[in-house]
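REQUEST FORM: STRUCTURE PREDICTION
Request ID: SP-0412
Submitted by: Lab K.M.
Chain count: 1
Length (residues): 160
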Amino acid sequence: MTKAGFGLVEIIIASAIISVSIFSLSAIAVIGSRLQVQSLEKIRANFLAEEGLEALRFLRDKSWSGNLFTLSSGVDYYINFSTSTSLWSISSTPSYYIDSLFERKVKTENVFRDSNDDIVLSGGTNDPDTKKFTVFVAWYSKAGTSTVQLNTYLSDIFDN
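STATUS: Completed
RESULT:
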């Protein structure tokens, strides 16, 4: 008699093991999908930040005095690309979100040099032909607000 009920217990235990396995695999798939989306967003943000640095280099090469020299330290600037003229520009007017998700802005800082012509964080003499640029890319996702930032120094190498 006890052997007749034992088969039913085996079926219940096997069903429980299979259910837990399927649930675990589906949970892993959901977590993996979420991580994939987050890493894709971060990769896109890094590319947009690098594109911002390249746009600043383009603006420097086109005209340092006309594009970058007049930018004030600590002010948010936005990089825009005109599809009609295929040219980059920079302005203090907030631009649209890139891909309806990413916001890219640029800040500039004056650069100071010591007597050896090395860049210093404090003291020194202002170098009007060099500026530090920081490109920020921010986006909001289910994980919250995320940001990426890249820095570079640009100088008036073409004396223009």
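NOTES: Residues 2-155 form one domain.
Reviewed by: T.R.
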